[in-house]
Queue: 4 jobs
Job 1
Amino acid sequence: MDAVDAPDSFVIGVDYGTLSGRAVVVRVRDGKELGSGVYDYPHAVVTDVLPEDVAGRGADGQAVRLPGEWALQVPNDYRDVLRHAVPAALAEAGIDPAAVVGIATDFTACTMVPVTSDGTPLSELDRFRNRPHAYVKLWRHHAAQPQADRINRLAAERGEDWLPRYGGLISSEWEFAKGLQLLEEDPEAYAEMDHWVEAADWIVWQLCGRYVRNACTAGYKGIYQDGRYPSEDFLAALNPQFKDFVSAKLEHTIGRLGDAAGYLTAEAAAWSGLPEGIAVAVGNVDAHVTAPAAKAVDPGQLVAIMGTSTCHVMNGAELREVPGMCGVVDGGIVDGLWGYEAGQSGVGDIFGWFTKYGVPPEYHRAAREAGLGIHEYLTELASRQAIGQHGLIALDWHSGNRSVLVDHELSGIVVGQTLATKPEDTYRALLEATAFGTRTIVDAFREAGVPVKEFIVAGGLLKNPLLMQIYADATGLQLSTIGSAQGPALGSAIHAAVAAGKYADIREAAAAMGSERGEVYTPIPENVAAYGELFQEYKTLHDYFGRGSNDVMHRLKAIQRRAAGAVLPGTTAGSTVRATAEVSA
């Protein structure tokens, strides 16, 4: 039956974010969103101590503490999204679940789960439940920076041909750095692990009972290029025990985006209220599925998914090496084009950190009296300022720098503060800093011969009109927002429709189901000029602190580690985990 014929069929898209999972019910013939459900992870992001309800206590009877730069999650929270958010979305949509033909999911990339051969996370085994390395390492787990540094140095020394595909540097967030950290800091857990799995693939495994590795994370986060991973010889040079990491822990059947990984099991059907046997799409990444949701499947259409962090994705007709990119992958977004990815490690997280720790009580009180959230209140105050009136310039590195420096040892800074500086001044400077970070990425693309013609924003931060206008003015690009409030979930639903055979490919499905544009922000010429002047100051600071002129940020990290060194329970004797204070919210 053709997708436009009656009776209607529906698909489910599930977007796994940093703090919650969101499900949406979408009509196949036109992409209409009929119902949604949200489930907040009960354990959120674990950065201080392992939650006692799942981990218990350590051998000393105390809660198991984590060093800084760690960010873990509890895998059962992801299953609970299927138990709660999907039924809620079905109920709101008011449809017969029997009319659902497919489900697809997306995840934050480089969120890694160590599992046994049947997919059981190590953290769910009794003898490992109080071992930090047995838990999910979230994308923003940055404690593997020393391992990433070694990988980068060795790859550069050897002239590894995959390194330029990642802008010359791989990140501490990615699969190999985190895997090497696991080996070196908890070799027993590493030995117990049969598969080092992206959460994007683990949740699909939970749904259909089959482990299929998606092409997107394999290419962008797993250093899989031209049909191969880094060689055993390279891995052995890092650590002899790491030699068979690919063959023993990582390598697996790779599924094409939009294909069916399998079909919904009876157990997953009981969790979700969906029919057993419907198509389950190959896993994918939140940013990459959003491009089809925004109908941005042609070269030059840059999509920024702005939330706690920002991921920038774009298709290109030709392969180019772009310094500091997160990667370029053949067919990484849609077949037939090169998919480029860049990103900023902290955006909404920075704004959240500032409102939590940098805003005095009287501002929170005034916001409540005005019937506003603290972000809305500060935005209103900041919007009254002329560009440059606050006298500040900031670097948006509170969670490190993903692109273009690929260095999570960097940290945030605000220059120009005086005794007259107010919270709204700093807040606006931080908004502007993230816009300058995006302009740096846009400039890097253009300078490498990858044209950026259009700028489209999705994610939670598009609700802030001041921020959107700042981005348009700082980049000089017309900015349009995606019309859907659930861009990644809609993108996943589009992939579900393809996996269910309702459309021939992602392009066809995107044309029929993708969201129309929402608000449009046009650069204001005088603002573009004003931000051009400020951007030069940002660029000076960016290069001074980020390109080796002054390594004070790295030195401070080293001092911090010496002061806060710790040994994790369950690690081998003498295996010291470098600890740093948590910087981001």
Job 2
Amino acid sequence: MDLVVRGARVVDGTGGPSYTADVGVHEGRIAEIGRISGGRRTLDAHGLALAPGFVDMHAHSDLALLRDPDHSAKAAQGVTLEVLGQDGLSYAPADDRTLAGVRAAIAGWNGPGDDIDFDWRTVGGYLDRLDRAHGGQGCAVNAAYLVPQGTVRAYAVGWDDRPATGAELDRMRQLVADGLAQGAVGMSSGLTYTPGMYASGGELTELCRVVARYGGYYCPHHRSYGRDALAAYAEMVALSRDAGCALHLAHATMNFAENRGRAPELLALLDAALADGCDITLDSYPYTPGCTTLVALLPSWANEGGPEAVLARLRDDAEAERIRYALEVTGADGCHGVPVDWSTIEIAGTADPAFARYAGTRLDGWDTARRLLIGDRLAPSVLQHVGHEENVRAIMRHRVHTGGSDGILQGAKPHPRAYGTFPHYLGHYVRELGVLSLEECVAHLAGRPAARLRLPDRGLVRVGHRADLVLFDPDTVAAGSTYEKPRALPTGIPHVLIDGRFVMRDGRRTDVLAGRSVRRTPRTPRTRPA
């Protein structure tokens, strides 16, 4: 054995009872579990739990993995795999025009990208870029990718609010198929973000049929988490049923005053669909506030035409007044149909240092919001304090639940979920509150996500599986990140391995770059039914 981990409490990712055993690692895989003698190296793990590496089912590290070889934001949490390309907007597939628009649209998620060499245009090219990041060494953790439907629509249709033509729909089908053939695990949508939100249900169904033929899954940020949340969830369930496509609901929450205490209604909807044979999973983060960009709250008509068109409308007093009225009086679709309460909107970060003083402050009204949007060229990110704890707990208990941080790493004061989601589950919701048992929680954070991604050799502590492992102290593990200090690292997670190599050892990040792209298992797509 290259390494023998001795005396660990093995929490294997199945949800079954934990047990004490040695775990032997050889050539990057788990080679033996039991009582093991010998080994080139040994690690005394008495008092520690050993679990499969955690899978962040909703990550926004698309540029961070290329920018930052350390990436302790995720590595220190025990995350060994992130799923990128979320919310329908990322950087592949794209041509030069599309890439410029997307970079501007999601600068609040990933930064403007001026420090990145965008030397790819395809999904396969982006995954290759991850593999040869940082001088060819790779990246900090593994990464899978979803074809972003909004980017695909921008590429084939543009940023206009109109139906796709037949030729444009064919082009989108081909772009999605190409991305899946090149290794994407599915397709994402951001249906409160432009231009993805301009797609009809029929258009989305056609694209999901392509996803289904390749064995991928559909991951929508659906049309409303506010006034029409239940109807929006029902639309996604019906769409996936019609397309015959597996469904994974992104950051499944029930937010705003309209939805307090209504999580059981969502879960009843899902239980009925599951009982009928639908393939559905979901992810959530263990916090009440949401996080997005300030521009995302605007009504969809204000975003039509792309970022430069948005800025032109904001500079026009009459158009800006129309936007304000939609936000404050009628409720913009970008704000989930609920009139905005500015006191719930906290600035997380800005791109321009001239506006850095606003980070960590609540907005005092539309005039300040408008000034920030124009001055920082749509880049401000925000926390939206609109969630409900009882809904958070009810959803995380569900049998198809998985963990996802939805972590935006940009800004002076990002949401603490970016640095704390996984230890917060283990420390607060397992040890302190008992909402989940330790074994159940690890299944939610590792075994179940790997099954959704159809990764046959990850997500479990099992002989033959990849040695992507995390060792933590169940009695002390906790998120260090808070709203005041959002980049503080967790405690109680001393060791993290990817392919049997230590990326965290004794609580410190090593210089190992063991992360690679994790691609959908190639297969010939199923023929469309007659």
Job 3
Amino acid sequence: MTQLPVHTGTLALDDHRATRQEATGWWRDAVIYQVYPRSFADADGDGMGDLAGVRSRLPYLAGLGVDAVWLSPFYASPQADGGYDVTDYRAVDPRFGELADAAALIEDAHGLGLRVIVDIVPNHSSDRHDWFVRALEEGPGSPARARYHFRPGRGEAGELPPNDWESVFGGPAWTRVKNPDGSDGEWYLHLFAPEQPDFDWQHPAVRDEFRTVLRFWLDLGVDGFRVDVAHGLVKAPGLPDAGGTGQLRLLGSAPLPFFDQDGVHEIYRDWRRVLEEYPGERIAVAEAWTPDSRRTARYVREDELHQAFNFHYLQTDWDADALRVAVEESLDAMRPVGAPTTWVLSNHDVVRHRTRLGGGLPRARAAALLMLALPGSAYIYQGEELGLPEVADLPDESRQDPSFFRDNGQDGLRDGCRVPLPWEQKGSSFGFGDGGSWLPQPDGWGELSVAAQYGRPDSTLELYRTALRLRHELPDLGAGESVEWLPAPRGVLAFRRGDFVCTANTGDGPAELHGVAGELILASGPYDGAGPLPADTTAWWSTGKHAGGSNGGPGGTRASAGPGDGPGSGDGPGPATGTAA
């Protein structure tokens, strides 16, 4: 394994540790790195990533310059949906290690100045969860069934689902069970896979259970939670029909009786009180698909959660006009509730942005610099700092995404962004582990590896490292609630934040910049600051006292897209698809 040195820019580790004891509002400008544990690093050689593997690579993340690590689920699970089907919320799945591994990871992360956020999955459990097993055994009308949504079917013999709701993964959102005597019985609700029955959050036992789960992990030292399907916990009274098919296409764009119901906010006010019982500014982040930014803002009012993912920005095309609208609407929506805006380009549920946006690596790099210049908090999905593309040609026999095997659901593309990371240039799994990888890696993966890019000035990895260092060093980057838009030619975004200016060319050709007086401090591609800004290029400028490298400034640091980053696979444009379960 290549041992990489730890670099944290000008922030000493003691300074990072000190912030854990102060009321800093650290999440307002944090860069949070998402780790999908199955695909990050494999310490035991079984072909699947684990917590010990993540722990071994924490120095890399500290050196990258991120502020926190978000871990996708590692709980006990049959893995019907990549761990989002939980059997025990207080246990680590043996595939990933033991509870002691989680505790050691948290301790090591804190020692490196990194905070740790873990996924919590409150909308549904596994169908092998003790509660659901008991619900099946005890039959209709039992107290155990009241913790889930069991209903009699429609039709003469109850042969039809209770309503017309559709699963996000395709097909009906209902599955019929057998009674203990073997006869056909009731139906249960699962907005995702049949192996993921939805909890009924009107039941006090469900609310009590998750309060104890929160405290369990807070006691272990986690700094916060990413709330999976935060918009789905409460269903409309009476479970009315949605009124038609193709409901997935309405996700995040229109009201649905099973998503974004007002009752969820009472739950999150309760959770906020739990978080505030603990020192160190523990936070919660909502994965909430809503019709618009103002509905999203309701999740982050002062007495609810701290952040919400900005899916409206993620779904925006690489177009200056559209991006400006998305930025303005996002900032305008969050300002009245006093919450930071978040920015994200990729995650474990969508096609990687290098592929999704079209334009290949140069556009992906430009989009990254634009995102990191915006006011608020940013999320980086593992491997985007390497410029990884979507792996679009996985063989069918390798697929594991449950939506791939069902009709009319998600496109089954989530496996392509979950291919294990390349750490080394050679080897059976390019340094992921000694036992291969659970999804096949492309032959050219080694050219995109950490080892191939580390220390090479023109690499995508070094571009991210430089940009993240500058976020710490330049006082006008990071937290904020507005930008000053500057005049710019068509296809170009230009905005000022104090002495900092960002220009991003989303057009097809070079663009003349007028009125940008300052020193170039970073560019996403080959550009020295003179002449037109090339297409698919973002440039950062210093226009005041920090120009020329004063006060710790970079003094004209540049990074350019070079051919050594490798061709990867799947560079063509693709849809932004998927919803976490």
Job 4
Amino acid sequence: MIEDAVIEREDGVGREFWRVTLEDLAEAMGTRQSEYGNPDEPLKFKIYRGRPRRPLTTRVPGKLTAVEAFDDSALATLLRYGYGISRQEFDTNGTWPYHRMVASARCLFGVQLYVCLADGVYHYDAAHDVLVLLRDGDHRRLLTRATGTAGSLPEAVFVLSGLFAKAAYIYRDYAYRLCTQEAGLLAGNIDLVARSMGLRAHLHHQFVDEPVHRLLGLDADEEPALLVMPLHLAGAVTRRAPVVETAAALAAGIDPIEPDVVRSGLRVAATCPTLTEVNRASLRVDTAAFATAEPVVPVVSDGEPLALPGTEVPEVNLADVLRARDSGPGIFRPVASRVDGVELWARLARARAGVTSDAVPAGAPVPLEMFLSVGDLTGIPAGVYRLDPQTGALHPVARAAGGVDAITAIERVTIPGPVFRDMNAVVHLIGDRDWAFDTFGDRGYRVINQEAGLLAHRVCVAAAAQGLSGRVVNAYHAEGVRAALGLTEQRHTPVFQILLARTGPGGRVIVPVEPEEVDR
């Protein structure tokens, strides 16, 4: 594995797909289908037939605390708060009935979660809160070898896949962006929950794909693995493997499986040619070219930075926050409210730290820059700021916004839908496109989206800790956002736009799904 280096790579299909999906909204949405009465609509959950099922305890702690061992209770807690169902919605059409602990575009939840334990390989069935056995045996070491690492055997290895048909029935090729974003959102939540339990997660964007797909019985075109996440108890040691691993050699030792799955939805390889091409181009056949590098930071600040006050951030129970986190009503409509901007600032200032990922050198922060457009936050003047990841300072941004305020400037470059009046703030996560593709080739598309998703989830959790809804919005014009944020280089692209506000009730009936708590 090469660290702190950028490998020169030829431009591939990934950069063009980036242009379409992040720079040309009209082209990206040109093939969008209606979600209502769509004959290609898949089932809400992936269902396996005839496989052994391992029930998880329904009694989980109401507060997340460190565990001494990764036992059945710890596993159930991690899965329940990681990707369990948080609420059920009842409305007139039933299109968005299930909500989970993380956000998902139109509640499609295209990302699937697989769990590799000492006794077998499982799929997490969130609808029934059980693990479905796919393969017997301990394959954790094989998965760490696929990531090019060695060291202590992990307690478990989570694999996140993208079941593209779940989103492609509406969004066609654009489903690749949504699924990679949501893999990052889920990875971010698993990481947060694991840390609260004294576990350590490592995000691997880079792994050889064929053995992972064969192990899980996945079709690489329809549902590729997107992230591999080993989980360790604190103190475990991992390191780079001393030998180069090849996909062919690792896959050769795995007997193929074809578990019986209830087929639903369209066939992506036949319907989404561009998605399929980009996905195939991202696959890796050996670990020799794995690399890490740090992105180029945009230079946009002007004026004296605002130093982060030495304020104590109130500690919150993450379990409560995750149950309360939401994306707001269908029409995002803020209500006028007073929000402690300094507390939010302090929470956001630490959002990029503490993640272990193979996308950047050890100890480097999440490789996305955070910009904050302030509307109504106490303690922070209205305006646009870049959040300094090292000091937590807010650097005012000089921009040419035609004399309008910061929030209005963002509203003008966002597709109509959300209401911006009384918006507390808008967060933009800015990625370095050239860093992604120069370092990871066509796999760079998924790497930068997944890293952005992880950070976006942390932003939404920070907002939820103060009673704010966090709405992820992809419907914006990238060039207009650049102008509003003072960005001058095309390489620096807004990957996520997140609206933060207290919101009023929508026209929906939503019932929380509460776990049966047990004191620990």
